[in-house]
Design a protein that fits this description.
alpha/beta
């Protein structure tokens, strides 16, 4: 269930709570297979399917699947808008695996920012903040939800005497970059205003009319739209 990916990425819910086996969800399906359609013969009415490798198979198995009616549903993928460095340095949030990767990255950032190697240095606070700064490119429903969940997580883990990372209290940043003039543009105007106010009240930095133009290993270049 895609809308819960942000919650899974921050540990609010477990992955098994938002997934359901295809066979259980669709009891009317008598034949289900996982693989890639690699060929189509419209005269013979067959589709060539390369099945996913399972168990101890050394090579994937290819079969011919006959059909009466053919429905092509190609799904969707994350649109990176050809921003330089996205594929190499950015994390996406579209699947369970993506959420798991983000969860591990968040935990690693907290540990890195709490490392004793920077304790007592002149730039301790700045360095901790640098190591615990999270940039979310895109102010759509997924980006806003992730920012809110991440902000809640930070508030919980940085509590004095109760949180796992009390050293990081007041030393983290969550930044949302949105190229348009409002957050969650598919929603109505009232909900957009509520989303912006809610994030700002949680301490999230929201940069509207701003694009990420390049993503590096430890940095992001941003460009603000210019208006008269």
């Amino acid at each position: 269930f895609t809308p819960l990916l942000a919650s899974a990425a921050t540990g609010t819910i477990e992955f098994r709570s938002m997934t359901e086996p295809v066979r259980n969800a669709n009891p009317m399906i008598h034949e289900y297979m996982e693989g890639s359609a690699t060929g189509l013969d419209v005269k013979k009415k067959t589709v060539t399917v390369q099945l996913n490798k399972l168990a101890d198979e050394k090579e994937p198995v290819t079969i011919e699947v006959p059909y009466d009616q053919l429905v092509v549903s190609v799904g969707a993928k994350v649109h990176d808008f050809n921003v330089a460095g996205v594929k190499e340095h950015a994390l996406k949030l579209k699947t369970i695996d993506d959420a798991r990767t983000i969860r591990e990255a968040i935990a690693a950032s907290f540990e890195h920012a709490s490392s004793p190697d920077i304790a007592g240095t002149a730039t301790e606070d700045e360095e901790r903040t640098r190591r615990a700064t999270f940039l979310i490119a895109g102010g759509g429903p997924t980006g806003v939800e992730l920012a809110g969940e991440l902000s809640d997580l930070i508030a919980d883990v940085t509590r004095k005497h109760k949180g796992a990372y009390p050293k990081l209290e007041g030393k983290t940043r969550v930044i949302v970059v949105e190229g348009g003039p409002t957050l969650v543009p598919p929603f109505n105007e009232k909900l957009r205003a509520v989303a912006l106010k809610s994030l700002q009240e949680q301490g999230v930095e929201v940069l509207l009319n701003t694009f990420a133009t390049e993503i590096g290993e430890k940095y992001a270049k941003l460009s603000a739209q210019q208006f008269d």
